[in-house]
Amino acid sequence: VEFKAVTPWGEKYLKVNIPGKFTVYNALASLGVCLQMGIPFEVVAAGLEKVSVPGRAEVVETGKEYTVMIDYAHTPDSLENILTTVKGFAPGRVVSLFGCGGDRDRTKRPVMGEISGRIADFTIITSDNPRTEDPLTIIKEIEEGIKNVTTNYEIIVDRREAIRKAILMAKRNDCIVIAGKGHEDYQIIGKEKFHFSDREEALKIISSIQIEKKVFPQMAIQNLLDSIEFSINYSEKLTHNWLIIENIIQLIKDIYMLKNKETLHRSVVEFLIDYQEIFTISDIKTISRIEKGLRTKKEFYELEKIIEENTLKNLLSKIKMLLEKIKNEIDSSNV
């Protein structure tokens, strides 16, 4: 934000890196105090330009024509403030991505859903720190508030995949607000704490999208590989079948992208048929059922009842074997 301030030396321009009117007001207050203390304007201006607070209206430097912002907003007031602020300056759409913490105040969930639905142009409801609560139960309570004001929303339980969807749908001048966790670099599922940073995930996903667009820097490939390995390890520790079900298809698509440097535009089954030394016909049929089941909520809920946990764990084990095979193929081709 660049703005004009009237000083004893005439009109001067200030620049701050945190967007929003509240930043302008805070900066002007700071400027006034510093000038009264005799601090030169140039020193104050240089200091204000360097100010940033991790996870508080933090703009992620993506180099893209859209904006990704990380914010700690996890209450109705804070979510309304950040979305209203962004709506005031964003030339394109505002995409809101948030969830609510488990084992915390349940009454705020539908309220936050209503706020996001009313202010944002599109909302993705996802997991925050579900702790010992069922993430889908939390999301359903948020949905009770948003469904009364708009149909422009989507539910994606896995936070990593939710961030991916938000970035993939971003157009020029859009602003994606990833709210709730801010500076936190972890996610609490059950009683376990996993490393998870909204900022890191956004940058990894942007790098992997470069691969989709046939830009293949080594760092982007490594980021995609790191993301796949993290998601496999994360999925192996999950105790909710439906979370594992959600991850399986995306993992296979990511591995395909790692191998072929392009997005998989066909069924994952067609890709896996080439790897029958790893996946049996029974495995492939199960994965096909999962892929079809993810298309509607009704079929998805049926999947959770039908597919046993041991079957899912076995598929994850084989996906890990597939990843190792693809890594070896890539290494061989680079020799």
Describe this structure in words.
With 335 residues, the protein is an alpha/beta fold. The protein is 55% helix and 13% strand. The protein contains 13 helices and ten strands. The protein has a six-stranded mixed beta sheet, with helices on both faces. It is globular.
List the helices and strands and how they pair.
Elements lengths: L1 E6 L2 E6 L5 H16 L4 H10 L7 E3 L6 E5 L4 H14 L4 E5 L9 H12 L2 E4 L9 H12 L6 E3 L3 H11 L5 E5 L6 E4 L2 E4 L2 H15 L5 H19 L4 H20 L7 H5 L8 H13 L3 H10 L2 H26 L1
Parallel strand pairs: 4-8, 5-6, 5-8, 6-7
Antiparallel strand pairs: 1-2, 3-4, 9-10
Helix pairs in contact: 1-2, 3-4, 4-5, 6-7, 7-8, 8-9, 8-13, 9-13, 11-12
Sheet-strand content, in percent, reads: 5-15%
Order of helices and strands: EEHHEEHEHEHEHEEEHHHHHHH
Helix content: 40-55%
Total strand segments: 10
Report the radius of gyration as a whole number of Å: 23 Å
Distance between the termini: 49 Å
The poorly predicted ranges are none
Morphology call: globular
Mean pLDDT: 87
Structural class: alpha/beta
Q: Biggest sheet, in brief?
A: 6 strands, mixed
Give, in spatial order, the strands making up the sheet with the most strands: 3-4-8-5-6-7
Number of helices: 13
Index terms:
two-stranded antiparallel ribbon, alpha/beta, 335 residues
Summarize the structure.
The chain is of the alpha/beta class and 335 residues long. The chain has 13 helices and ten strands.
